[in-house]
Amino acid sequence: MLASFHLQLGNLPDWVGAIGTIAVFTVTAFVVIRDQGARREEKSTAAYDAARAVTVAVGPVGRQGPRGSNPYGAREVVTVPLVTVTNGGSRTIYNVVANLYTASELSLGSQTWAELPPESFVTHEGEPHDDMWSKTGPAMLDVLATVTFADAGKTEWYRDTRGNIRRVEQEANRQVSR
C-alpha cells in the first residue's frame, strides 16, 4: 500500500479569513489585558483615596484625678492625651486600632474598635505620664498616635499623626524580601 500525501493549502478567501480571525483575537487579548491593568490601578487609587479620608489626631484633655490627689483633698484636674480617629470616607472601616505613645516611644495606651461607620469618629483617653510633655520648650503635649484599620476590600492600612499613610501588607512584604 502506497500512501499518498496531498497537501491542500486552501484558497485566498480561506487564508484571509484565518489571518483576520487571528488578528481579531490578538487585538481583543491586548485590549482586555490593558483594561485589566487600568481597572487595577483605578481600584488601587480609589482604595488609597478612601484610606486618606481616615484621620488620626491627638491633643490634651483635662479630667479629674482621684479624690485627694492634691494636698487639700480636692480633685485635681489631670491632663491626659486624647486620640481622635475620624472616618471621613463613604465606607465603613474595620478592625480599627489606635495607639498613643510619647516621642520616646513610651506607650500611653491603645484602643480597638470593631468598625467605624462613614462620617463618624471615636475617641480614646490615654494614660498621663511625665514624658508626654516637651522638654525643649514650653509645656506642649509631645504625644504621637497611630491607627491601623482595614477597608471594605480587606486591605490593611497604617496612618499616623505625622501624616504618613501606607498599606500594611506592602510593609510586611518589604521586610520579608530583605
The total number of structural domains is 1
Describe the sheet with the most strands: 5 strands, antiparallel
CATH topology assignment: Immunoglobulin-like
Low-confidence stretches: 171-178
CATH architecture: Sandwich
Q: Tell me the fraction of residues in β-strands, as a range.
A: 35-45%
- Molecular shape: rod-shaped
Report helical residue fraction: 25-40%
CATH class: Mainly Beta
Tally of DSSP helical segments: 2
> How would you spell out the order of helices and strands?
HEEEEEEEEH
> What value does the Rg take, in angstroms?
30 Å
**Adjacency order of strands in the biggest sheet:** 4-3-6-7-8
Distance between the termini: 69 Å
What is the tally of beta strands?
8
Q: Which class best fits the helix and strand makeup? A: alpha+beta
Mean model confidence by pLDDT: 80
Assembly state of the chains shown: single chain
Features:
alpha+beta; Immunoglobulin-like
Layout of helices and strands, plus pairs?
Blueprint: H1 12-52, E1 54-64, E2 77-87, E3 93-102, E4 107-116, E5 120-125, E6 143-150, E7 156-160, E8 165-167, H2 168-177
Antiparallel strand pairs: 1-2, 2-5, 3-4, 3-6, 6-7, 7-8
